[in-house]
């Protein structure tokens, strides 16, 4: 139950932020932008464009055929 409560609290905050960012959007449009389930997500290490650079730890999400990575988890 605690996990469900946290999940709903996070979705509620996301909904509020999206309402502020898109004030003329309908509730149904905003609901479609809320958290989705990702196929895979976690940390990986990558190098920069030069092969001599050190590996950097990045958070990634893989959703369908789209791979995105960030410095920190969102």
From TrEMBL:
Ranges where the PH domain occurs: 37-74
A GO CC annotation given for this chain: plasma membrane
Q: Which GO terms describe its molecular function?
A: GTPase activator activity; phosphatidylinositol-3,4,5-trisphosphate binding
Q: Give the domain of life.
A: Eukaryota
Q: Which PANTHER family match?
A: ARF-GAP WITH DUAL PH DOMAIN-CONTAINING PROTEIN 1-LIKE PROTEIN, ARFGAP WITH DUAL PH DOMAINS 1
**Under which name does UniProt file this protein?**
ADAP1 protein
Task: Provide the organism lineage as a comma list.
Answer: Eukaryota, Metazoa, Chordata, Craniata, Vertebrata
- Which gene is transcribed and translated to give this protein? Adap1_1
């Amino acid at each position: 139950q605690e996990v469900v409560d946290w999940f709903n609290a996070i979705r509620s905050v996301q909904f509020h932020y999206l309402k502020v960012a898109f004030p003329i959007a309908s509730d149904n449009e905003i609901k479609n932008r809320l958290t989705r389930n990702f196929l895979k997500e976690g940390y990986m290490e990558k190098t920069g464009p030069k092969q001599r650079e050190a590996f950097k730890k990045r958070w990634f999400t893989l959703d369908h055929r789209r791979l995105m990575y960030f410095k920190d988890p969102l």
